């Protein structure tokens, strides 16, 4: 389970290209001296081909085959998340501090810096209508929509558009900022985790620290004492319901 301490506010890096695939085809054909009537015919053929691709049952899989997705959550205090993804509170949370400004300077490194997009939750499956120059929206919808039954996860996703699934390096020295041991982690594992954090701390730009979660004695909730960013009160201000 991972914690997203901030989410992107500048979407300029994700703006779609100014010219779509068919517009490029039009200019390319014009440069080759193809007559207007032939250009119209070829454009119609290209539209039909793209339409057939997007309406094919294989379209979602063909998109996903080259995509890698890394999922994060903005809520480190959710009991279900600890139960499902941290071995019933015996595991740990890794906290990342992700840049939210000057995205243009990071455009070539957004996956390594874990720059992410929020997931949209819906009670309807995504449906795709054909439009020639906006395939990016269809792909984004496919990758960033989940059933609203999962809305408690408050998920964000880092999307890598090449290479498919796998294990990839990230800019650990720049974005890793904290580790939270689960409330039911064994003493031996706590010591192992503490040793690892102590070993890598000199390599990390952020003030890396190890925190310890505990279960509230009065409520069905998780607390992380002394954590400067994720007290329940600060969580409410950062991520209101």
From TrEMBL:
<feature type="region of interest" description="Disordered">
    <location>
        <begin position="221"/>
        <end position="241"/>
    </location>
</feature>
<dbReference type="Pfam" id="PF11185">
    <property type="entry name" value="DUF2971"/>
</dbReference>
<protein>
    <recommendedName>
        <fullName>DUF2971 domain-containing protein</fullName>
    </recommendedName>
</protein>
<feature type="compositionally biased region" description="Basic and acidic residues">
    <location>
        <begin position="224"/>
        <end position="241"/>
    </location>
</feature>
<dbReference type="InterPro" id="IPR021352">
    <property type="entry name" value="DUF2971"/>
</dbReference>
């Amino acid at each position: 389970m991972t914690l997203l301490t901030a989410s992107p506010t500048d979407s300029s890096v994700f703006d779609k290209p100014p010219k779509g695939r068919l517009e490029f085809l039009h200019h390319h054909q014009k440069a080759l001296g193809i007559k207007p009537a032939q250009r119209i015919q070829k454009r119609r053929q290209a539209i039909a081909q793209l339409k057939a691709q997007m309406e094919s049952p294989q379209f979602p899989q063909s998109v996903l085959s080259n995509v890698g997705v890394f999922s994060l959550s903005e809520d480190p205090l959710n009991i279900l998340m600890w139960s499902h993804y941290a071995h019933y509170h015996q595991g740990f949370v890794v906290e990342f501090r992700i840049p939210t400004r000057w995205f243009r300077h990071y455009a070539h490194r957004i996956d390594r810096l874990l720059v992410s997009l929020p997931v949209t939750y819906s009670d309807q499956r995504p449906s795709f209508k054909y439009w020639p120059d906006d395939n990016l929206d269809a792909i984004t919808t496919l990758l960033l929509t989940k059933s609203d039954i999962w809305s408690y996860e408050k998920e964000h996703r880092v999307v890598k558009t090449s290479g498919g699934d796998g294990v990839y390096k990230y800019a650990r020295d720049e974005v890793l900022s904290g580790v939270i041991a689960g409330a039911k982690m064994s003493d031996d594992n706590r010591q192992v985790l503490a040793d690892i954090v102590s070993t890598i701390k000199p390599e990390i730009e952020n003030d890396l620290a190890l925190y310890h979660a505990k279960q509230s004695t009065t409520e069905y909730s998780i607390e992380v004492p002394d954590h400067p960013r994720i007290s329940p009160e600060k969580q409410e201000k950062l991520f209101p319901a």
